[in-house]
Design brief:
single chain, 407 residues, alpha+beta, 13 strands
């Protein structure tokens, strides 16, 4: 969800209203972000399911969301980001050294994971207390960028909310830091996320908004967001399957032609009779017409397993994430065959890469400005070739055979 506003609100009189409205709009999507975070942590909706008292309530959450996001992020950044500019090789070398000191590579890994999990990631480029440039990955649940309402959607400001909680974990206000070109503004927040009190202003070394967003796709959806109903169905099926087993152990004993179970000493004491039955594990019936049988539900295990496999296949299919535990990924298939099986994941990743590269280029503009101010070799962010290279399985046997044929 992109938050857009008219640039006229950046004036001193309107920026507080702009912040208030932007935070309210951002808070409308907070439930969705928190739910995505829960699923990534393995806490799907099945974990809060309740059943009537006395019935087994197994709650099994399967880690599909984490699996999908980790595979997607790992495939996107299987190798560090590669920068190249043949006309300015010294500048690129200086940029890579600057990023190494700034912690950009570690931040990139976190950004890729946040992009896959929340549909958007946010980075902040800042100056540390020691005077060095640093890059940090922010929590998308508390940081966002506001853009202008033109077709270019240029960043107007970045907002970072730092919430304070009491001993019971309830929100009791906090701080909102607004990152603008060349300066930062800080407000105290009330419990209702309203700016209050006197604004504090400090300088920041960049002439651009130092906060950058990395979208996952045009809708800023998570990689597992569309398959969350399927994940819920899979969790429900697995949990109820275990519940059925538990209820089978607690099956009812149905007696036909017998009026209750008592003991020899007290034939009407049915509770004592049941206790004795559990101890002796034997039951005497009064005549040949009487019978005893268990009242149980006989689940069709084969049908349940077919449904379970179908749900798992749909989760992998619609999230475009292959199941690497599948027999089709056996170790004896060729590298070319594996590439075909990774085709959908590769196509999805190429689209993610384009959005991720947009954010990396915007961050490179901040780094280029820092380098110019500190006398480092120049680099042009618009001329940089930014590559996200992936490491795919190679068919060594076929390559060796081709080389022998060439000789």
């Amino acid at each position: 969800m992109m938050i857009t506003r008219d640039r006229k609100w950046l004036g001193e009189a309107g920026i507080e209203k702009l912040l208030t409205g932007a935070m309210r709009e951002f808070q409308q999507g907070q439930y969705r972000l928190e739910r995505l975070a829960r699923y990534r942590q393995g806490k799907s909706d099945i974990m809060v399911r309740e059943r009537p008292e006395g019935l087994p309530n197994t709650r099994m959450s399967h880690g599909f969301a984490r699996y999908i996001s980790q595979v997607s992020a790992g495939y996107l950044l299987s190798q560090p980001v590669h920068y190249q500019d043949d006309e300015r090789p010294e500048g690129v070398k200086a940029l890579c050294a600057l990023y190494a000191r700034a912690g950009a590579e570690q931040a990139d890994t976190q950004l890729a994971m946040a992009q896959a999990s929340f549909g958007r990631a946010v980075s902040l480029t800042y100056q540390s207390a020691a005077g060095h440039m640093k890059v940090a990955c922010l929590d998308p649940r508390s940081a966002f960028v506001v853009y202008d309402d033109t077709v270019e959607h240029k960043p107007l400001m970045g907002v970072l909310m730092s919430l304070e909680r009491d001993a019971l974990g309830e929100t009791k206000g906090g701080n909102a830091t607004v990152y603008l070109p060349g300066r930062c503004l800080n407000w105290r927040l009330t419990g209702g996320f309203e700016p209050a009190g006197q604004v504090q202003e400090i300088a920041q070394p960049f002439s651009h908004v130092p906060m950058v967003e990395y979208l996952n796709n045009e809708e800023a959806h998570s990689d597992f967001e569309e398959v969350m109903p399927l994940i819920d169905a899979y969790d429900l099926l697995g949990s109820d399957r275990v519940n059925d087993r538990a209820q089978f152990a607690d099956a009812l004993l149905v007696l036909t032609g017998v009026i209750g179970i008592g003991t020899r000493e007290n034939p009407t004491d049915h509770r004592a009779g049941i206790r004795k039955l559990r101890q002796d594990r034997t039951l005497s019936l009064p005549d040949s017409d009487a019978k005893a049988e268990w009242l149980v539900k006989n689940p069709a295990e084969k049908d349940i397993d077919v449904l379970r496999l179908a749900l798992a296949a749909d989760i992998h299919k619609f999230s475009m994430t292959p199941d690497f535990a599948d027999e089709r990924f056996a170790g004896n298939i060729s590298g070319v065959a594996i590439r075909y099986k990774l085709f959908c994941l590769d196509q999805k990743t190429r689209l993610k890469e384009r959005w991720f590269t947009v954010g990396l280029r915007e961050r490179a503009r901040l780094a280029a400005e820092w380098m110019a101010k500190n006398g480092l070799p120049p680099v042009d962010a618009d001329e940089l070739t930014i590559s996200l290279r992936r490491q795919l399985p190679q068919d060594q046997t076929n390559q060796t055979q081709m080389k022998m044929e060439e000789r």
